[in-house]
Amino acid sequence: MKFLAQLAVKSMKCFAFTAVILVVASQIGCLPGSALSKAETLAANKDYYGAIEAYQSIVDTQPGTPEALQAQLAIGKLSIKQMNRPAEGIKAYEAVIAAAPKSDEAAEAYYELGMHYYREKDYKASQTQFDAIVNNFPQLELSHNAHLMLAKSFEESKNFEQAAEAFDSFANRNPRSKRAALALENKARIQRQHLDDEEEAKRTNQLLVKRYGKVEGAEDSVEKAKQELRDFNATIPEPDDPLATQQGRALAQFEARRERDRPRGGVERSPAMGNTNVEIPDSGFGIGAAEVMRNFGGQGGIAGDDQGSYHDAELMIANFFYGDESYRDAGALYFDAIARAESEKVKIDPYTYLKLSICYRKVGMHQRAKEVLRKAASRDGGVVDAVINTGRNHYTSEAYENAIETYNSVIGMSRSKDSEIYWLISLAHKKLGEPEKEREVLERSIAANTQNTDALQSLAEVLHYRLKDRKTAAVFQDLVDQKGDTYIGAKTLGDLTYKYENYIQARARYKAAARIAKRLFDKSEIEAEKRELRNQIVYATILSARATYQLKKPEDAQKIIDELAAEYPEHALVPYGRGELALLNGDAETAVAEFKAAIEKNQHSDIAVIALGNYYVSQGYNDDAITLWEGFLANNQYNQNVTRSLKKLKGDAEETEE
Fold first, then answer.
1. Which of 384, 431, 390 is closest to 410 using CA atoms?
2. Across the 658 residues of the chain, what is the mean pLDDT of every consecutive 10-residue run?
3. Do residues 239 and 214 touch, judged by C-beta distance below 8 A?
4. Which of 41, 98, 34, 33 is nearest to 64 (CA)?
5. Taking the model in full, what pTM does it have?
């Protein structure tokens, strides 16, 4: 009996031990890694629905964890690449970005979205995704791949100027990479084949040979560049020695400065090393300022001295790199020097912020470039002035593209100066022989300040002499000559300011136009003239209601239309006005019905016809727009507004087909 009891106890212990093992095993099977493995196995076996269900279970049970993010990424890849369900894949990737916008998984989601849009030839969308990685995840290797895909996307969309710029910024960002040589090769090819700029192609090829002629792995690109230069009968430069160029020259310059500033009597004061207690965030340039500085002074680095602080030494060497077009290393030093100066509450030259911003732009980080200037301008008004002065210097030196780039960098940072800056940009476009771009920036200048007579005069001139639109030119010339107290003058300014979202000015100008028409209406005794003036009153009032709506005052806008309808109950444009407000309110069905009602009331007015046609175009219903406009022109063959709209639409359609 005693033996049987002992055996029973041992059996119970063995059972208990086995049970523990089973529980542990089941728990291990529930671990996140195991769940991911199970889903991956299902996917590998092409059970895609089962895999997605398994991945979704991880997302639902472990929200916010790295495993959940990995599962979401996997759902996105399966949905798009294996199951042809792009909408669900896009949704999964966007969920990753929303859940952890600064994570490595978010960077991967951006990249996968960019590649999807690229394959679908939605290049604008792909550019947005790749650009987000370049600006927000510069520390990742994936960022470099995204940078090259951004350049390719620009090229595929025939945006060749930006493609060349993106290849150039990749080379600036990765100066010691053999892929940088390939990027410059692509830049030169685009300049030659697509931009027809032989001189710039020569310069790029010469730069390629000079920088990468002795870099291992860049031999093919260098040889192609040399052959291009031979074909151009251009000089082939001697390659730099990558180990004895920038550092040596900068160190010599630094030592010369120290010798020049050494105190008399031959006694040099003790060095003042940079404050190592300053916490400086990552600059995004892919190299630290300390590493750049070490390259110039051996293991100990280069210190400041009593003639200048450590950040002064950084700035001096940064300026050297900047002049040598080594924007990555220059930017890292500018960033560090600014951070040190700000921590010590030392005011720094505004031009330093501008140079840092340019370094960011030159390595493709446009968002950071804008952010640098915006923060600096909020602290020091002299920053915007420094940028404007730099742009003027570029213009005087006939570097017009650089002037435009510089001016554009501070648009929106000082609204009181925006109008002037746009006008200065227009002068550069004039020199470059780009009248359409000149007109656009002049319109923006006037939209920012309708009293800018320089911009008004310049717009009148470009319209008259270079674009041959003498009718519109005369309107702006009248405004310059202070003859603008006319319906057409007030409405033209209203249209221009509305176009560029200055709704306060737009509303004021439309109201002025209505008042002018009303004043003339009250004086007129000719019925045909009164009918035309009545149309002007109603139309300008509707446009003022539309501007009022854009000012976040929908009730006030509706009140304007209701009062207009009460005063002119049978006027054909009243339903058009209701349609405009319905469209702004997102009620497309009502808008279309009201536009059609307006057309039915007056089949000779083009206002509702153009509005309805433009709505069709905005929705991709181009055939409906063409049918509408051709039908209108059948009875109104001399209407220039509809004729222009129709020609433009058909021209765009032909370009798309090509």
1. 384
2. 43 43 36 74 91 92 91 94 94 95 96 97 96 94 96 96 95 89 97 94 95 91 95 91 55 48 41 58 91 66 55 90 91 94 89 93 93 89 91 95 92 93 98 96 97 96 96 95 87 97 97 96 95 97 98 97 96 97 96 97 96 95 96 94 93 59
3. yes
4. 98
5. 0.72
